[in-house]
Every structure is written in C-alpha cells, then in structure tokens.
Specification:
It is a single chain. This protein has 157 residues and is of the alpha+beta class. The chain is built from 3 helices and 8 strands. The strands form 2 sheets. It has a 5-stranded antiparallel β-sheet with strand order 1-2-3-6-7, sandwiched between helices. The relative contact order is 0.20. Bound molecules: cobalt (II) ion. The site of cobalt (II) ion has 5 residues, from helix 2.
C-alpha cells in the first residue's frame, strides 16, 4: 500500500463536486486501501478522494467502533434526524478546529468496493464523520459550517 499526499486547503480540487464511480475494478480497491492507509497514518477518522486529488465519489471512514472500516462509494443521505454540535477537524486543514452542528442521526445508502448497495444507520460521532466525508464529495468543506473556531490554548490537554 502507498501513503498518498493529502491536499491541504486552499485548493480548488477540495471544492469541486465529484463524479460518480461507474467502474468497480482493482484500481478502485487499490485507491480505497491507499486512502485507508493514508487516513490511519495521518491519525484521521475519515478521508475523501478529493483530499488525495481524485474527483470521484469515494470515501473511507473508521471511528474505531464496532463498524470498523467503512468504504463509501457514491453515497446518498436518505434521511437525517436531530441535531448535534461538537468540535470537528479535517485532514486538509491541519491544526484548525471548530464547532459544527450536524444531524445526530443519518441513514446513508452507498455502494461497497464490489458495487453492492448497503444502508448504514449512524448516530453521534459516526454520523458526524460520515456526513463530513459526504460533504467533501460535494465540494463542501467543514469550514463553511463552523459556528466558532477553537484557539490553540483551548485544545491543550
Ligand atoms: Co475533511
């Protein structure tokens, strides 16, 4: 596997909506594995393909819960409920953290690496992570949703 270079803001690739994946082949599996490896190496909980310069609807999420690694291809948010506000960051914005309000529940339909459809119902932090990555695929960055930024002194400890 290969650690990919994570594109940092500002870069127009981060604000460009991604194309749907139509070919489910070895290259897609390789991309997913490399993205996952890159995310882990960067100590992140999610990574979207535009963050490695690829404008395709591909993302990986792993919040270290019982779901483990989740590969998201062509994801669609089918339903959301509730509201949660909490601190959020992004691998494309090193050392930038802010409060973001998102739904507390999300029902998402996506395809796996073989093109098979699945539905995931997520709450809390997993819902936040999935919705953050799906925003990336639409060219939407978390900074457009931050209600307040944290100072470095607030983040210590
Ligand atoms: Co991000």
């Amino acid at each position: 596997m290969t650690i990919l270079t994570i594109i940092e803001h500002p870069n127009e690739v981060l604000e460009t909506p991604c194309e749907k994946v139509t070919t489910f082949d070895k290259n897609l599996v390789k991309l997913l594995n490399n993205m996952y490896e890159t995310m882990i190496a960067a100590d992140g909980v999610g990574l979207a393909a535009p963050q490695v310069g690829i404008l395709q609807q591909v993302a990986v999420v792993d919040v270290e819960d019982e779901n483990g690694r989740i590969d998201l291809i062509n994801p669609i948010v089918m339903e959301t409920k509730g509201e949660q506000t909490d601190i959020e960051g992004c691998l494309s914005f090193p050392n930038l953290y802010g409060d973001v309000t998102r739904p507390s529940y999300a029902k998402i339909k996506a395809q796996n690496k073989r093109g098979k459809y699945f539905i995931i119902e997520a709450r809390g932090f997993l819902a936040r992570a999935l919705l953050h990555e799906i925003d990336h695929l639409n060219g939407v960055l978390f900074t457009s949703k931050v209600s307040r930024y944290y100072e470095e002194s607030e983040l210590e400890g």
